[in-house]
Amino acid sequence: MDTRLLLYQTGSLLRVRREELRLTLAEVSQRSGVTIAQLSRIENGLVDARLSTLVRILDATGAGLDDIVVEPLREISLSDALRRRDSGRSRIERSGVAESDVSARLERKDRRGSDTTAERSRMDTT
Amino acid sequence: MKQSGLRELEAAEREHDPMVRRLWLVAAIQAIVPRPVFLVGGSAVDLHTGSYRPTDIDLVGAVGVADRVALIDAGFVESGGRHVKWVFSDGSAELVEFPESRLDGTFERITLSEDTAINVITVESLIVDRINQATDGMSVTFDEAVRLVIAVGDRVDWAAIASELAGRPDAIYLGSIGRARDVLVGAEMEHVSEAHFRE
Questions:
Q1: Domain region containing A82
Q2: Which of A119, B24, B111, B165 is the most exposed place for a label (fewest CB within 10 A)?
Q3: Cβ neighbours of B94 in A, within 8 Å
Q4: Which sign does the torsion angle of CA A41, A43, A47, A50 carry?
Q5: Is the minimum CB–CB distance between A83 and chain B shorter than 8 Å?
Q6: What pLDDT does residue A112 have?
Q7: Residue A96 falls within a domain, yes or no?
């Protein structure tokens, strides 16, 4: 079990719960007595909160420990990922659609204000 | 003490498939950065289409200044803007960008070896992202969304995609559902549009 990932997933569930209720961090902070900064760190999976702190946050959003049970992750092997990729590539080739247009993608990024100098330089050398 | 990420960087160095090489580079970054990072963007699209030619590796996660310093210490180099670069011994390079601190959507794990796995945005969340991008009215984003749907459209959870798309706060403003219908027509998958994105 990857603890970092577990903290991230638990924090995400707390954030989703809060957002579903349209509560701000300040409102949950007021209800739970947990500071806004600490709430933010917990929601982003940056700290390993004590169980008592989690329970206070859950109480503040009308939730229980059942609501932060992390679902098992979908895991695939590299070989399956490669098979998936090859299958996707074959489908695209059979469909006859045009190739991905790298220049157009970079122009779009330019228009949106991104600095694409490094990407253009890299693409020129590959 | 052995340097964090060294084993993964060595694996990337040995790899000839550009996509797998990128995955090992992500694994190296994950070994160096203390919090989870998630592969998104064009490199994630390439995992499903094999023909995208990504210009960089987009990773989302809470990557701070200290993490960037750790990456530089491990051998990455600053490359202007938000990118850091890894240069392989054959002279080829990969750019890495950290565009966001939080993953918008769900993720899966790809196992690279017995003790190494990386986090990658699920194809369902990737389709949501590409359809939302395609609401900008440009042909390039529309074409990319169509290509992705052609590649994976028959093996994804369209109910989950429809739900995720409709649940985004900006769905109505962007016209995401209408664009999803357009993309599905472009991919000749009208039956999915009828089943999940009816007006």
A1: 78-124
A2: B111
A3: 122
A4: positive
A5: no
A6: 84
A7: yes
Dihedral (Cα; A39, A42, A46, A50), 10-degree rounding: 120
Q: Of chain A residues 11-30, which have a CB less than 8 A from chain B? A: none
d(CA B72, CA B152): 37
Overall average pLDDT of the B42-53 stretch: 93
pLDDT digits (tens, 9 = 90+) for B79-89: 877 889 999 99
8 Å CB contact between B38 and B107: yes
DSSP string, B154-173: TSS-HHHHHHHHHHSTTHHH
* Subunit contact A102:B53, Cβ cutoff 8 A: yes
- Yes or no: say if B144 and B130 are a contact pair by the CB < 8 Å rule: yes
A90 domain-assigned: yes
Inter-chain CB proximity A77 and B117 less than 8 Å = no
Which residues are registered as beta bridge partners of B60?
Answer: B38
pLDDT tens, residue by residue, A59-76: 999 999 898 888 888 999
Cross-chain CB nearest to B150 (options A95, A105, A119):
A95
Tokens representing A82 are: 């490669």
Tell me if chain B has a CB within 8 Å of the CB of A124.
Answer: no
Interface confidence, given as ipTM, is: 0.89
Alpha helices in chain B (DSSP H): 6-14, 18-32, 41-49, 65-73, 123-133, 139-152, 158-167, 171-174, 176-186, 190-196
State the CATH number of the domain containing residue A50.
1.10.260.40
Distance (Å, rounded) from C-alpha B194 to C-alpha B91?
49
Residues of B in Cβ contact (< 8 Å) with A2: 36
| Separation CA B63–CA B135 (nearest Å) | 29
Which chain A residue's Cα is nearest to B121? Answer: A74
Kindly state whether residue B90 falls inside one of the protein's structural domains. Answer: yes
